[in-house]
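Narrative of activities, Objective 1.

The group set out to show that a structural description can be obtained from nothing but a protein's sequence at a throughput compatible with the screening campaign. Below is one input-output pair from the validation batch, recorded exactly as produced.
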Amino acid sequence: MLVVGGILVVILLLAGWFFNYMLMQNRLSRRQEQQRISTSLAFGLAILAQQKIQQETLADETQELTKYLQKPLETMGNLDKSASTRIRIDLGTMDLQKVLDEMVEPLASLGGFSYVIHYFCQGKDFTRIGSKYYPREKAGLIHLAVSTTFKKANASELVEEFHFVFKVKVTAALVPVLSKFTMYVADARGTADPYDVQASFRLNTVSTNQNGMENPSNPTGKPWVFLNAAEGSPLPMRLTELVESKRGLIYLGGGQLILGLARGSNHPGEFSEGHHFFKWGRGDGLFNRWPPENGIYFLQWDQGICSENTDAGRDWYEFVQNSPLHIFASRNSALKLLGVDLPSGKRSPTLVLGEVYRAFLSARAAKNLNPNTDPKYFKPLFLKYVKKGPPGDEEKYWREYTDLTASTEDDNIGTFVTCIDLTSRAVPPLTPREVYNASYASNLNIEPYGRSLGYISTDNQIADPLINMTSDPLIQFMPQKPSAVPASIFHTIPDPFKIIAGVTELRSMDDLLKGLQIPGSRTTWIINPAVEKRDIFDCLKARGLFDGQILNLQGWVYIEGDNALKIDKNLKVGSNGGIVLQKGDITIANQIDAKTGTGNSNHLQLITLDGKITVDTNQKVQAALLSRTGFVTIEKNVRATIHGAVAMKYFDLGSASQGANLEYDIDLAALPNLVASAVPDDLTEKKLLSFSVNPTPIFLK
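Output recorded for this entry:
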């Protein structure tokens, strides 16, 4: 009996222990299940917080996280938890409370629920991407501290802490070097033959009247009109200050280009360019060209080019109609690089790089003021270009001009020759006629384009503005003769934009695109529409980057394969970013609106690495456009307005049928810098930054 009793006691003890063990196991299982549910809830909260951060917090420049991520890498430090770093899912423009309620429903049996979420950052988590000269570009981590609390009636609170991180990438919507240019054309001549004179003048396709209006009797097209800086911006006259100012530069490569400047009268028209000249080329624009010789003063009057078929244009054209260059003296440029004369003052001077020269009419005259000569006085005598006579009889032909019977005012070329001994200067094989044409006759004049800056800087009141200018390097772009400066100067990347390793010249767009690094470290998304079997915009929608109307890229998107991108609906730009096509054409057939809210302006880059870009809308296009192998062209029935920048391999003359207004986005002029304190914030890439947060949180503990 004792044995049996002992066995029963043992069985009871074991049963009690087993029961307690089973209770403990049940509690542990429930606790583990609860932890799994709690962790899942915390993970869900982290995803919701990520959405709030991406869509709301980082869109607000006053938020602590935004201000922190905008800092240069070297000055970041840490961003600690505080009252201002708390994320409320149920507040703000993006209310996610309904989503949260559905997530909490399975845990209702645990009692009342509350949460607290904070973000924080550590400087050590961030590394540089892109160029060291734009130190605000970086990649790193955003930390999330998620605290959940469950309170059941008559029970203690259950508080749990979770730690997540998100990857974040900060990039600027600019293309290093190229974004500094209102327009960059790698090859504006369209031929490799440096001796092709027609190629040098190929951009002169526009016929205007003496007022700078389109010539209705001979419509040939309308030009692109440039606005390189904010209206009314002062013109710095030192090279460093000019380059560093918030204005776009211009580069036209491929060799020598000669651009005719349009005439502007006292009633300036839509395309007149009188501001390029002494006294705007109006009124009595005569000025002394050389010191007097034998009492004779040599005068010159520079005037823009207009159609020879207009009344005022015909007189000027007759001065040069016998010159070999006369065929280029009636059409002006399809590119109004420094703006126009409109009464609103849309002059927009900037530095023009490349072997670009300005062409205009120089009407030259002589006036005798020496009372000791015979004839003693004559009024200003305009000296026409004299063509060569028949073979073997050139001098006889010349004498027909010089031996004319003097008029009562003594104002024929013979009077001029009486006072100036051309024969003694005519060293064979030169003839007096050739000496006269080369030195004294009216002609189409050609000078470096930069010389216009001298006239503009002196309010067009000084005939030779370089006389009063300092020795600043800027004057090397303004010589009177095209051969005065080595051509290489016009192809050199100006400081401080010489930031791509091993690249010092502007000639090759491929070299300059090394700074883009897309595909590469600056890429936020890589998309292959062929693999996904949907078009580009549907691919963007799937990633939350496009909602059917607003493009919210928050960084750079690289599109793999051969794909066409067509914008045929009004497109709003909700954040900074860019789209880069590996191959394919881009067509813009509707407005691109980069304005969101009050005064906010975002920045969009549209780039094709192998294709062309066509603008087929009269609506404003607020985007920078770049075609590596083709051109940015305007459809023939369209006069486009592009607010941004344009870069292309070639220039399509067909795009000047109706022309374009090209307005530079001055934020793209961000200055490269290595030291954060060296450049004021508003001159850096700060306004161009985008912040892309990886949508998948990483659970640390």
